[in-house]
Amino acid sequence: MKRVLTVLLILAVSTAAFAAGSQDGGKGGSVTLMQNKPEIDPQLQAYGALWAEKTGNKAVMKSIGGSSSVTMGQQLRADYAAGEMPDIFIIAGIEDFAEWESLILDMSDQPWVNDTSVAFQVDGKTYGFPVAVEGWGMAYNKDLLDKAGIDPSTLTNYGAYKAAFEKLDSMKDELGIISVVSMAASAEMGWVTAHHNFNSLLSNGLPYGDLSVTNDLIAGNVDAKRLGEYADWVELLFEYGDKSILTTGNYDAQVGAFATGKTVFLHQGNWVDPNMEQANATFTMGYAPHGSMKADTDGIFVSAPSYYVINKDSKNLEAAKQFLNDMVYTAEGQKFMVEEAGMLPAFGNITLQPDGQLSKSVQQYNAAGKVYSWNQYNFSGDFRDQVLAPIYNQFAIGAIDKAQFVELLTDAFENRQ
Amino acid sequence: MTDKQENRIVFWVFLTPILFAFLMVIIIPFFIGAFYSFTNWSSTARAGATLDFVGLTNFTESFRDPSFIYSFLLTLIYTVINMLAINVTAFLLAVFVTSKLKFKNIYRVGFFIPNLIGGLILGYIWQFIFNNAIPSLGDILPGLSFLGDPGNLVLGNRSSALMALVTVGTWQYAGYIMMIYVAALESVPAELHEAARIDGASNVERVRHITIPMIAQAFTITMFLTLVQSFKQFDVNVSLTAGGPSSMFMETPLLGTELLALNIYNTAFVRNRMAMAQAQAVIFFLVLIVISLVQVSINKKKEVEM
């Protein structure tokens, strides 16, 4: 009998613990945020704790992502199915917006809307808080270019890049490099090819926000000349990229080769600045435009990469709004965004500047208005990752030639579902 | 209260929590999932999203989807190779660690340890080995310079990348299967071997005619475990190859080493076709049930009663 009592007692206690655990704090003012930059997770956790302490709210910061195999979108779908959507989460563009549309709060009345030009808007209403401003072009190592006698300001079209790549390739031993470009096209790096590089086709040389090429491709009308020039550019990048990094390298391998001076160019955005600092890369670096066209293009691709949105059904709407406002209008928030997370602020009232050389280069292009938009998010993630990425990979591993590459891309656009 | 009553209460008190958990995380989700496979469910807040019955559309579409068919065939190939590799390796290791060796317990522990490491981590470790360690070995050792050639990268080529998955799968799982073989080998009565030796049977003959029939029960278990494990391979697949390199199938470019579990996952979370993925999971479940029932019944026939 004693045994039975003990067991029942344990059962009762554990049931009570269970029941207690399933109740939420319930005190209100708790904000759960989910974002997709694991590299700034420690800084975000620290800022979340600081904010919670200052405002008396609770703050739970979650960071998901970093590779194409586990993305925030997947986590959100799982959380949505489980009824545990975060209060603040991230969308990357119109495709994500469509997916969560009925949940996203209209934030047009928020004070920060007037201090930014890159908020996420649909039909004149503001839904997304720009996380930062980011950009990519061809990152170059100025020291190595100087040694080879190449002026980076001349790199504005396909011909100039081809000549420069050939010259650099012939000086490999002299410069101590393994290849001219650090380019990645493996399965897990599909975002470099099928998201970022792909955007050269969509927006290079066009006025900011011009969706003409994008909409044509979405409608299945392929401009063969533009696609042909773009394919030349992809071929050039693949031909002068290190084969190991190209076919099997991950993010660390790709960025590491550039940071250690083993390549002259890097096909990545200014988010690599912290990696450069970690690797003690001291050489002078900056961005040059992409050479995806025979005509001159003098800008790089700059945009807000993603936007914080607020979950309309959240129980903590006010705290969530306050969290976003505090990021823009308090000294701690500004310090977190710019100095700790190293992001280029998307808000005009913030005067702090990041340290990274590549971020500064992006800022210069941005200030000069030499920018092209990010149109890749007008295509679904499925199309980019499952349809385009394998085509780029086939080309990179040499399974198909340029003509087949063009043909497969054309087919993909014409038969897009 | 009699002893019998008390026993019955204790029985149910202990069983209830596990039954509850089993019901909540296996049985109920299974039926909900099967239900969703006949609908157009998608776990998003898309404007105008409704839940409608679509009949067998998800199933018929799955069988028209090149990437699903490809992953299915690839998984069958992978399962056959992986089952063979794991069982042969595990059996040889078991014979090795049950022979008269010094430090045999240390070997047993050593072979078993990879099983305690998570598949994701193993995948990343081996990715480093295949991408960095092996090519630099080629740079150092004369005569092996072909290893350093980017064209020969193990993960750069579809067939060798599949073999890499088998290698890592074997490395991870052979130790566990070895333990089952060790237990079985040690239960074979020594007098049978002794009698055979007196009759002049060679070592190979004794393994073939005494050991293998005597441990047929172990084969049933190990074959089943490795079959299911290979079919469900996911974590190593994600971290080691992420499905790459690409390949062409039915005139469609697709991921070349995407096994079935990863394909279903990508259908659900990258393509955002939740209901279709659910249908594929149901197909996966049915096929796995049939194959493993066939395997167990074949193996059972070979078992001998003592």
Can you give a write-up of this model?
- The complex is a heterodimer of chains A (417) and B (306).
- Chain A has 417 residues and is an alpha/beta fold.
- Chain A folds into two domains: 29-133 and 304-348, Periplasmic binding protein-like II (D-Maltodextrin-Binding Protein, domain 2); 135-302 and 371-414, Periplasmic binding protein-like II (D-Maltodextrin-Binding Protein, domain 2, 3-Layer(aba) Sandwich), CATH 3.40.190.
- Chain A contains 18 helices and 13 strands.
- Chain A has a four-stranded antiparallel β-sheet.
- In chain A, helix 2 links the parallel strand 1 (30-35) and strand 2 (58-63).
- In chain A, helix 10 packs across helix 18 and helix 14 (317-329) crosses helix 15 (331-340).
- Chain A is globular and about 60 Å long.
- Chain A starts with a helix and ends with a helix.
- With 306 residues, chain B is mainly alpha-helical.
- Chain B has a single domain, classed as MetI-like (MetI-like fold).
- Chain B contains twelve helices and two strands.
- Chain B has helices at residues 3-36, 57-64, 66-98, 104-112, 119-140, 158-186, 190-198, 203-214, 216-231, 235-241, 260-269, 274-302, and strands at residues 246-249, 252-255.
- Chain B has a two-stranded antiparallel sheet.
- In chain B, a hairpin with a 2-residue loop joins strand 1 and strand 2 (252-255).
- The two termini of chain B are 42 Å apart.
- Classes of the chains: A alpha/beta (417), B mainly alpha (306).
- At the A-B interface, helix 1, helix 3, helix 4, helix 11 and helix 17 of A face helix 1, helix 5, helix 10, strand 1 and strand 2 of B.
